[in-house]
Model the fold of this input.
Amino acid sequence: MRLDYLTIFPDYLAPLQLSLPGKAAAGGLIELHVHDLRAWTHDRHRTVDDTPYGGGAGMVMKPEPFGEAFADLGLAAGTAREHTTIIFTTPSGEPLTQELAHELSTRERIVFACGRYEGIDQRVIDHAAELAEVREISLGDYVLNGGEVAALAITEAVVRLIPGFMGNADSIVEESHAAQSGGLLEYPVYTKPASWQGRDVPDVLLSGDHGRIAAWRRQQQLERTAVRRPDLLHPAAAATEWEIVPAVRADAGELMTLMRACWVQEAIEADDLGVPALHETYEQVVEGILTWDTYAVRTAGRLVGSVRGRLAPPPEGEGQMWDIGRLCVAPDLQGRGLGRLLLEHIMRVTPAQATSYSLFTGVHSARNQRFYKKAGFRLRPDLPAPPKAVVMTRRR
Ligand code: ADE
Done:
């Protein structure tokens, strides 16, 4: 690949000779040519900018130096289009993504036109589009003083993807970024020593248990992504407000899927497949919706949470109870308060005659029990419960 840079600050691009692109150049994989745009000016002051037509602040880069530079670089109409891309670095461009970097890594030639000031005369860009493929690319939603840093970043992202560049192709495949990690940010990494300044490497990484390590890393990825880049997750993950609505019969299929997702996780943790919710048939799920007051939360069209309640015949010596059950939240949205919201909701809609709330959860599910205790429930070993479950109640 041949890379050309048109800039009024050639020194700014000196780092190209170091680092990864420098290595690739030394290895003959790429050719780097940095050009001082002022070489294509003809006045005493080597002027590259002028005031904007129509007024406004700042200066605009003149078209003539770019036009002459393109011609001298051999870019002529109809010759370079298939294999050459001219990149204009600008905050108004399309964002640089890993996908775009991959696309650019297939080009034979890339010419960077680094903008400064308020930008480049639009006719330069229109003209370039007749010579080659044109991409206007932004590093992100912030304004730099010029496009040189962006050109460096794009170069590094692209060059390392050229086949034969990194000795080990796997290290590219395995590595971050989200576009390469199933849409998630990378998990945190650690190396020796195992303890440093009172900070220990998480035990799981020292366990040698590859299954647990993989599960831990996946969880870290999900948590990081949810906090730092919720936009990368399903749109539901970016939601901060939830609307709880009565479930209808048509929700049964999705509800069954959601419940399976939630209770399989619990079954794995408890090493017990006996969880009743896991054994419901589709017909029973439908019946559940019709015979319980069942509620659902949908976000971006996706069913992400549910809970249900119904009046139960009171056990000996107890008043009328509001039975709460099947409280579940999609695995990727847990830990964001949705479970708590569903519980509050189902308690809010309790009929007048109920004097207390009742539910059951896994006898080994410390997390669930903690959750309900925090909501004011207490364990009731004195009340009958399904196998391996424990009843918890709370006065109204
Ligand atoms: N030039 C100035 N700001 C820029 C940005 N964010 N991306 C690319 N080029 C730029």
